[in-house]
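ARCHIVE CARD
Drawer: 12
Card no.: 0347
Subject: one protein chain, sequence and derived structure
Cross-reference: see card 0346
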Amino acid sequence: MRDIEVNGITIYSIPDCDSDEDEEYKEQIRQIKAAIPFAVSSSLEMHDVKGRKVQGRLYPWGVVETENADHSDFVKLRSLLVTHMQDLREVTQEVHYENYRSLRLTGNAAVPVELSTSKEDEINDSQKDRILQEKEAELRRMQEMIAKMQEQMKQQQLKDDVSVNGSQQ
């Protein structure tokens, strides 16, 4: 974390909990904040570990399980994204996009307008626009992935509930 601060890297700051929040939620937020910066290892591959199927990466020394908090901060990162999605959207819209617009407006207004623009400036602007579009597409993909994960979690919970109820009867 010190390296992030020393190098002036700005990261998303998780809002503090309200005093009336649930204690379990407060603890979850404390754990997420303590895990920053996240160390995430992920894979789509399924492996058999001690008789159970787990998602993870296979290495010569064993399997790094994606869903195991001892192996990866993936679960904490996913939890952060799910619980703070609306705030992330608002910060993106109100801070990042507005800063970008302000820079573009003040940058164009402060510099005298040249009638002929150089080819290099056009390329830089088009590259910036392309990068911005790629980032927006990446954000949409992440939102879709989170929605899929939430749906999978709901389905798994339903399966677990059905299996628990079925075994009790």
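Annotation on reverse: The chain has a mean pLDDT of 82. The radius of gyration is 22 Å.
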